[in-house]
Amino acid sequence: MTFHDKLLALDRRWVFLVLAIFVILPILPFVKFSVPVTPVKEVREIYDFIEGLKPGDYILLSLDYDPGSMAELHPVAYAMLEQCYAKKLKVITLTLSATGAQMVEEIVRDVADSCKIYHGFKPERGIDYVYLGYKPYPGIIILGMGMNFRIPFPQDYYGTTLDSIPMMRGIKNYDNVKAVINLSAGNVSDMWVADGNARYGVKLALAMTGVMAADYYPYYQSKQVFGIIGGMKGAAEYEKLCKNPGSATDAMKAQVFAHVVIIIFIIIGNLAYFLGRRKTAQTQESE
Amino acid sequence: MEQTASMATQIWTTVGILLTFCLFSFLYKDNPFYKFAEHLVVGVSVGYWAILLYYNGINPNLFSHLFVFTNDPTTGAEFNTWKPKFDELYYLIPALLGIAMWTRFSRKYAWISRYPLALYLGISSGIAIPVTMKNNVLTQLRGTVVGLGFDWSTSGFLGVPQSIWDIIVILGTISSLIYFFFSKEHKGAWGGAARLGIYTLMIGFGATFGYTVMARISLLINRIQFIRDWWNMIS
Amino acid sequence: MKQQIPLVLVFVFGVLLAIQYFVPSEPSQRFYEVALDGLTVIGIFAMVLGIWSQIHVGYNKIKRRAEDWQYSVVTLVSMFGMAFCGLSFMGGLNGPIFRQLYNNIFIPIQAAIFSLLAFYIASASYRAFRARSAVSTVLLVAALLLMLRVIPTGPLADPINQIGSWMLMVPNMAAKRAILIGVGLGSVATALKIVLGIERSYLGKD
Q1: Is the model's pLDDT at B75 over the cut of 80?
Q2: Hey, is the C-beta of B70 within 8 angstroms of any chain A C-beta?
Q3: Which of B27, B136, B172 shows the shortest C-beta gap to C174?
Q4: What is the per-residue pLDDT for C206?
Q5: What separation in angstroms does the CA of C121 have from each of B211, B217, C89, C108?
Q6: Are B76 and B63 in contact (CB under 8 A)?
Q7: Which residues are within 8 A (CB) of A101 and not within 5 positions of it... i.e. 6 or more apart?
Q8: Is residue A101 classed exposed, middle or buried when 0-12, 13-18 and 19+ CB atoms within 10 A define those classes?
Q9: Separation between Cα atoms, residue C33 and residue A148, nearest integer Å
């Protein structure tokens, strides 16, 4: 068995082990270095838009992801919510992901609590922010909210009627919010673009997992969305803009190492493949 | 008291860590620990979903129209008194249609579920036709032709006028569409266009793959951060 | 009655809702609102099917003592246990045990399951991501360039970022737009087939 044959037949568990080592090493406490993060235009546009809003303006954050995707979207949710609270915006939050409902409730509440420490005031539930909770069938819910928030959400997550919530009085539909920011880990983003933007003309921005990001650039170019935050890189960029480095900034160190390892894997795999192919061709020639 | 709470947090978090290791054990090979955790999460998620569906679904969207709700003076939340009210009885119609869906489990009465299903499909298809046409087709075509600037004075990537890249977008879109058009054989000029289309598509899929690597690694890093934070907490 | 009424319902509501988009009058808006409201309620009931199906599958597996039936016990016990902890006398959605089970069982397992994909994409990169032909080489190079954006490459960082942005905004966008247009036309065609009664698979067999 030649060297490249051995390389091609390598047990995948060795690959797993190498990857694990290079992901663990950079995030150990004693490993100290930082990765330069330069925010791109499509991320900056979302940040600038929120910064440009006036205190008391309404914004809707639809946090449509579950724990399986929290690695990439939690950092954006934390940074963006804090930015909105700090700007004293009125924040309407909801989720269209069943298994993310409690997780989102905790983020919305945690960030409000942490504002007391970092900004000297605590946004109040019902006055500064509201969490509408979860409903199934995202497309129908997005369409329903376009007519009246009360159609899909007669009550908030905690069971309070929307009309009893001070900040929701007189707030009917998307016409009353400056923009919708959708943090999504699935095709809910498509529904927000189609049912929210195309049907009602909602001003929309998307934060999404890396897997999805490249697919949404047509909507960005056609101005159906005014910004895209793609994956952990986008999340780290947003944290940088908010001057609020968190888990995404921390994770970029491991991202660098893991990417180097995977690129090396691709190169080795291809080298072994070409060496093997050349040898086969030589054998066939000599025969 | 605070110490007890902290201890409880530590124990609960340790449970989470043990379950994480049960899952990671699959990397070596399939084993009972992995299977246990896998089945546990299915059960917990369905149980969670059932409760959520009641409190965030049936209760506010149906029961609040059919029963009298009253305020809890301490939390402000409303709760069901189960006293019926009669001003919105028409909500019984979608409720009955919804219940009709359940006949799917009976061989004899499964046909009844076709009525709500037909209603659902009819309404959602009717809504989707104009919206999808506008969103996926017309706005995209507009973006490809009108939305691009064709500004010869602005230089884009590599100092090439942006208009050149705009023309490449148009060519890329049309050639990719040609690649998907199988009613005409991919030969001659048509075949050349289809060939250009497949290369354009490959760059698109390559971009998606590049992003996917980052996405998958992110998920692993997040779990390593979770284990690191737990280690810091217990030590 | 079993076939014709559903077909009529699909046609009537499909046509009415499609026309409604172009008629923003008060009665038409009201009709649209009622349709969405009703659909939300019907949808919620339909979700119960999923829960019942899970119970049914687990119960049958245990009853038949099928392979690995013991794990179905784990599923059913955890399902009913979780639901019990969320009952109103246990605190409902805010019940302390319910919250802990969600935070310390559900979140870690679900996040860990997805994190396994990192290992498999590394393995796939090593074993399957080959420059076998010109087309696959283009795919590979595009992926590598996008991946290089994450790595600080010193003086090369700026050009790599520019190439990455160009790729996303020019060829990637053209490709994804073509797919969007194709999917859009396909979806409209399918919706029309359903409304016009050409596509009837949802009716089942008899």
Answers
A1: no
A2: no
A3: B172
A4: 61
A5: 12, 9, 45, 21
A6: no
A7: A95, A133, A134, A157, B52, B56
A8: buried
A9: 8
Neighbours, chain B (3 or more CB pairs < 8 A):
A, C
Task: Output the pLDDT for position B1.
Answer: 41
> Given the DSSP bridges, would you call strands B67-71 and B78-84 parallel, antiparallel or unpaired?
antiparallel
Average of per-residue pLDDT across A52-66: 96
The pTM (predicted TM-score) of the whole model is 0.93
Residue entry with tokens 């998958």: B216
pLDDT in tens, B3-29: 445 888 899 999 999 999 999 999 999
pLDDT in tens, C21-77: 998 888 999 999 999 999 999 988 888 888 999 999 999 999 999 989 999 999 999
C155 Cα to chain B: minimum distance (Å): 16
CA torsion, ordered C48, C102, A233, A28, to nearest 10 deg = -150
Query: Are B172 and C14 an interchain contact pair (Cβ–Cβ within 8 Å)?
Result: no
Distance set, CA A94 to CA A105, A136, B148 (Å): 9, 12, 35
**Are B227 and A28 spatial neighbours (Cβ–Cβ below 8 Å)?**
no
Domains of chain A, by residue range, sit at 3-31+253-286, 41-245
Residue carrying the six token digits 């700007």: A87
Q: Which chain B residue has the Cα nearest residue A102?
A: B52
Chain A residues 74-133 within an 8 A CB cutoff of chain C: 99, 102-103, 106
pLDDT for the residue numbered B2: 45
Q: Which residues contact C195 (CB under 8 A, 6 or more apart)?
A: B122, B125, B126, B129, C10, C11, C14, C15, C18
Q: How far apart, in whole angstroms, are the C-alpha atoms of residue A258 and residue B216?
A: 10
Please tell me the distance from the alpha carbon of residue C36 to that of residue C43, in angstroms, as a whole number. 10
3-state secondary structure (DSSP) of residue A59 = strand
Rounded mean pLDDT of chain B? 90
**Residue A276, pLDDT score:** 84
Give the C-alpha separation, B141 to B150, whole Å.
Answer: 15
Cβ(C110)–Cβ(A66) under 8 Å? yes
Q: Helices C171-195 and B162-179, interaxial angle, to 10°?
A: 40
Task: Give SS3 for B80.
Answer: strand
Spatial separation of the C-alpha atoms in residues C157 and A35, rounded to whole Å = 12
pLDDT range class, residue B105, cuts 50, 70, 90: confident
- C-alpha–C-alpha distance, residues A231 and B225, integer Å: 17
Q: In whole angstroms, what is the distance from residue A281 CA to residue A274 CA?
A: 10
Q: Is the pLDDT of residue B154 over 80?
A: no
- Domain range list for chain C: 1-85, 91-128, 130-198
Tens-place pLDDT, residues B108-119: 888 999 999 999
Closest listed residue to residue A76, CA positions, set A215, A179, A184: A184
| CA distance linking residue B18 with residue B234, whole number of Å | 14
Chains A, B: CB pairs < 8 Å: 154
Q: Which residues of B touch C100 (CB under 8 A)?
A: 12
Contacting residues for A94 by C-beta, under 8 A, at least 6 apart: A60, A61, A62, A63, A131, A132, A133, A134, A135, A153
* Domain A41-245 of CATH type 3.40.50.720: yes
pLDDT tens track for A99-146:
999 999 999 999 999 998 888 899 999 999 999 999 999 999 999 999
Comparing CA positions, the residue from B129, B138, A195 lying closest to residue C196 is B129
User: How many CB atoms are closer than 10 A to CB C150?
Assistant: 26
On whether the CB atoms of residues A10 and A271 are closer than 8 A, the answer is no
Task: Look at residue B202 and tell me whether its pLDDT is greater than 80.
Answer: yes
